[in-house]
Amino acid sequence: MKKEMNFNLPSINEARRRTKNSPKIEHQLFDIPVQLRNMGTGRLYYLRTYGCQANQRDSETIAGILELMGYKACDSEEEADVILLNTCAIRKNAEDKVLGEIGNLKKLKRRNPDLIIGVGGCMAQEEAIVKELLCKYPQVDLIFGTHNIANLPRLLANAVFAKEKTVEVFSKEGEIIEDLPSSRFQQHKAWVNIMYGCDKFCSYCIVPYTRGKERSRLIEDILKEVDELIKGGYKEVCLLGQNVNAYGKDLGMEAGFATLLEAVAKTGIARIRFMTSHPWNFDDNTVAICGKYANIMPYIHLPLQSGNDEILRKMNRRYTASEYRTLFDKLKKAIPGCSFTTDIIVGFPNESDEAFEDTLAMVDYCQFDNAFTFIFSPRIGTPAYNMTDSIDAKTKEERLARLNKKVAYYANQANQRFLDQVVEVLVDGYSKKNENVFSGYTKENKLVNFQSENVKPGDIVKVKITAVKSFSLDGKMIEE
Ligand code: 5AD
Ligand code: SF4
Fold first, then answer.
1. Is any ligand 2 atom within 6 A of the Cβ of residue 205?
2. Distance of CA 422 to the CA centre of its chain
3. Is residue 4's pLDDT more than 60?
4. 329-364 pLDDT, tens per residue?
């Protein structure tokens, strides 16, 4: 039995609190103690990432830290000396997947007692989940929070050498630590964090508790990162935040996101995307900048969540359906050919048939290129968790199916406009089945599979679209 020390458990009450203080931004804080710099030499790590882009980006940092310690990545859990799961807490089914995976790892741990199993990410920030992991999953050696990634060398060393169960989860965000190492997963497209956390507190959402308060990186640090990416041959950056339109507010900037977006456009990088926009903070300056620069891609992800005002109010979304429509129309006008995707939740507590019909009507109005649709999942600690709900599970399933049918119809319709058109594609890679078939994305973020003989990942090429599917396009490259 391992000793249980080094415990720093999460607290939902602490996570809920917000202070006015701006976090410090540290440029020289990260360091790996000399004695830990080779602790991974000759050893393998396996890192699995669940959930959103913020987690993908965090995993690149985790991979960068492990590689600086000498560890090398491997593709299977069986070979690994260290297995880390970077987890997602957004819905119960995301958590169930992770818990199932941890359950499966038990047999590997039995076979190899020196194997280290670590759990990080949003689930590690949840008080109830950490308790469950400690009680029911003895195979887990290490639990580290989203605010504790920079401490990974020390935490991992503790788990490996002291053989102690190690738990370090700070519920309050600390400083922003710049210059963390990173091992990027893609060669031509990069995620760039522009801010962390969320202060919107939508009533269903766990993110403000797992990721802390909104805090922005300095514009010069972001531009430095983009410049380095350009020098490294990157063609596309996606500016990341839970709510990018709030960028800079905590730094006292007026029109912070518009200012940043324009500065990134002026670096000359071929393609810029950003994610996620909250309709409430999407100001006219940003709309104008999106329309002004050709390297800002005509693609906006604009979560709707519901088309009904009463539900939107209960969700604490801070806009009405009509305000959403006004913003949508403004963006459509300002950005020619722009594609739009959205997120929608069905079955929010006590959502009436009429309220659901309002959501369908919004989908008819906006005719999204695609929508990510979810059934409401109650999250412990959020206000919606305690709301009474008279809608049964079957009704929610039926609503989701109706919504998905509509979404698929408009997705197909939206793709039809590309038939016989020539589009620009940033090439991602080869098809596994046929090496003359490549795939990549258009400016509007449409997946294209196309034939060519003379192209490599990272190229931006012209492709004529020959066939349209609901969620992808087929084409043939045009030689210039
Ligand atoms: N239940 C269902 N969907 C949720 N989302 C966030 N929280 C929940 C929840 N508790 C959805 C929202 C959000 C997307 C990332 O996940 O639509 O935009
Ligand atoms: Fe969650 Fe709302 Fe913040 Fe998005 S804006 S992360 S849905 S609280």
1. yes
2. 30
3. no
4. 999 999 999 999 999 999 999 999 999 999 999 999
Phi and psi, residue 275, nearest 5°: -165, 130
Is pTM beyond 0.85? Reply is: yes
Q: How confident is the model at residue 164 (pLDDT cuts 50, 70, 90)?
A: confident
Q: Where are the alpha helices (DSSP H) in 232-368?
A: 256-266, 284-292, 309-314, 321-334, 353-366
**Separation of alpha carbons 158 and 375, rounded Å:** 40
For tokens 């963006």, name the residue: 331
Q: Cα(278) to centroid of ligand 1, in Å?
A: 13
72 pairs with which residues across the strands? 44
CA-to-CA dists, residue 421 to 433, 461, 465, 477, angstroms: 26, 13, 6, 12
Q: Measured between alpha carbons, how far is 176 from 197 in angstroms, rounded to an integer?
A: 11
How far, CA to CA in Å, does 194 sit from each of 14, 146, 216, 240, 376?
24, 16, 6, 6, 28
Q: Which residue has the tokens 């497209």?
A: 189
Helix (H, G, I), strand (E, B) or coil at 63: helix
Ligand 1 nearest-atom number relative to CA 382: 10
Split at pLDDT 50, 70, 90, the class of 2 is very low
**Which amino acid type is present at position 36?**
L
Distance 396 CA to ligand 2 centre (A): 22
- Partner residues linked to 341 by β-bridges: 301, 370
Burial of 365 (0-12, 13-18, 19+ CB in 10 A): middle
pLDDT of residue 1 exceeding 50, the answer is: no
So what's the pLDDT on residue 6? 62
375: CA distance to ligand 1 center in Å? 8
Instruction: For residues 368-374, give the mean pLDDT.
Output: 98
Q: Is the CB of 242 under 6 A from ligand 2?
A: yes
pLDDT tens digits, 105-133: 999 999 999 999 999 999 999 999 999 99
